[in-house]
Design brief:
alpha/beta, 8-stranded mixed sheet
């Protein structure tokens, strides 16, 4: 049985998934395929590198630094979240909390990162061959929220957040040969995504990146369709959906340590469903 796990990200709400991955590391649960979208790519990279507690520190300590995210960053650098600080200054081999790249590289999990080509608006699926020591550009590209961040360039191609192109890559996981999939959502499963806010942001990038703007306008529809597909597979016993019953007041860029800790605990507790699901699938 080939097992995949998908982390759809969601900014600071991604701490819910951190709780799930910490549980998996505590129980020595591994996966054959891991697909990360936006912040989910960072969560999965630390999971693949076996660095329990690393992501927790990023969410509960580093995220509160103005260099990480702030209005000053937006004014002076054009990006509210300084992706070079997060995935470079902090994460490089000489950084404050380096990513263990050799372990990530040698880990057996097929690790994929989703970004969105800002010119075509189509999803781009990167893999570990696109990562080298101290060059974590694919995570920066996957996490470049439109308007909040400038698009991040890789090989001359600008990329936005992976959630524009494929917000819930369940179909991709099965396309990669998975027999069963665990999907981590960072909003309640029953919550239907609305395109209203996306359309407002799309208007701000449409002049320069019309295809990306169109893709952003379709994100809600794609998200809802992806969740519906996962629910279909769940009814067939091929998928497990993990999602918080509420987000504890945590939003994409809203900071509250108390709320973050509560959401982390929800993730750790909900991960108890994983061993039962894996056992029931044989």
């Amino acid at each position: 049985m080939k097992t995949g796990i998908i982390d759809v990200g969601g900014g600071l709400r991604g701490i819910y998934a951190v709780g799930i991955f910490d549980f998996c590391m505590d129980r020595n649960i591994r996966f054959d395929v891991g697909i990360g979208v936006s912040a989910g790519s960072a969560n999965l990279s630390s999971f693949a590198s076996g660095q329990r507690g690393r992501n927790f520190k990023f969410y509960t300590e580093y995220a509160f630094r103005s260099r990480y995210m702030s209005l000053g960053n937006f004014i002076f650098k054009g990006s509210f979240v300084d992706l070079d600080y997060v995935y470079g200054t902090l994460s490089n081999s000489d950084g404050e909390y380096p990513l263990d790249y050799p372990t990530l590289r040698d880990d057996g999990m097929d690790f994929r990162v989703v970004a969105t080509d800002a010119v075509t608006g189509r999803a781009k699926y990167f893999d570990k061959s696109d990562i080298v020591q101290d060059d974590y550009g694919i995570m920066k590209a996957s996490s470049a929220i439109p308007f909040v961040c400038r698009p991040y360039e890789i090989n001359g191609v600008p990329y936005f957040d992976g959630a524009l192109g494929d917000p819930v890559p369940v179909a991709k996981a099965f396309e990669l040969g998975c027999d069963r999939v665990i999907l981590i959502l960072t909003k309640p499963e029953a919550e239907i995504r609305s395109p209203k806010n996306d359309e407002k942001v799309a208007d701000r990038i449409r002049k320069k990146y019309p295809a990306a703007a169109d893709s952003l306008c379709k994100r809600a529809e794609r998200y809802n369709e992806g969740v519906a597909l996962a629910q279909k597979y769940a009814r067939e016993g091929k998928a497990l959906i993990l999602s918080p019953d509420d987000t504890c007041g945590v939003d994409t860029l809203k900071k509250s340590r108390r709320s973050l800790l509560r959401l982390y605990d929800k993730g750790y507790g909900d991960a108890l469903k994983i061993p039962e699901f894996l056992g029931s699938c044989g």
